[in-house]
Amino acid sequence: MARLLTARFRLPQDWQRKYLRALAAGVETGSTPGKAERQRLERARDNLKSLFVWGDLAEADYRRQREEIDRQILAIAPVAAPVALTGIRRAAELLQDMGSLWLHPGVNPERRKEFTDEVFEEIQFDEKGIRAVLPRDEYRPLIAVAEADWGGNGRGDWI
Question: What pTM, to 2 d.p., does this model score?
Answer without folding.
Answer: 0.48
